[in-house]
Amino acid sequence: MPIIRLMDRALFRFISLLTQLLMLSAVAAGFYQVIARFILESPADWSEAWTRAALIWTVMLGVALAFRQGAMLSVEMLHSMLGPRNKRWLEHLILLICVGFLGFLAWVGGQMAWRVRFQTMPSLDVAISWVYIAIPIGTTLAILAVIAHWSEGPRQAVVDDTVI
């Protein structure tokens, strides 16, 4: 079991680092686009496409990170009303719903990426499927994250007492 925990930790640290680098590159490309357009008066055609692609990848990888931390929609009111045994059954049900939805999303995303594999993004001169493939990769990683979070066992619900 320690080897699985080590692999889990290493994988999601790598995903976190990659997500941070993609976010940084999107911000840098967006900043460059503003400078090029309004100061240099010569807008770059690649920076907008790169920013969009990097943000799509950031979101899809960030979803996996959020699921790994347990930051997903949950039924806190129902969870707090149930006994310990029924709470675990509710967590099983939530796991099945999340994995089913994410699996469906991965399948549809894979179909989309396959369908557009011959289209290119003119400004970057790469296949647009490199952007669309973020959907099945991100959701597959999210499935692993949901299962890893669930396998750690029951947790206490965190109730936020802040008032908006």
UniProtKB/TrEMBL annotation:
Record flagged with keyword Iron: no
Subcellular location per the Swiss-Prot or TrEMBL entry: Cell inner membrane
Residues that span the membrane, as ranges: 49-68, 89-108, 128-148
Membrane topology: Multi-pass membrane protein
UniProt-listed Pfam families: DctQ
Keywords: Cell inner membrane, Cell membrane, Membrane, Transmembrane, Transmembrane helix, Transport
Gene Ontology MF: a single term: transmembrane transporter activity
Cellular component terms per the entry's GO annotation: plasma membrane
InterPro entries linked: DctQ, TRAP_DctQ
GO biological process: C4-dicarboxylate transport
Domain (Tripartite ATP-independent periplasmic transporters DctQ component) ranges: 27-151
Subunit structure: The complex comprises the extracytoplasmic solute receptor protein and the two transmembrane proteins.
Family to which this protein belongs: Belongs to the TRAP transporter small permease family.
Function recorded in the entry: Part of the tripartite ATP-independent periplasmic (TRAP) transport system.
Name of the protein in question: TRAP transporter small permease protein
Organism: Pollutimonas bauzanensis
Lineage: Bacteria, Pseudomonadati, Pseudomonadota, Betaproteobacteria, Burkholderiales
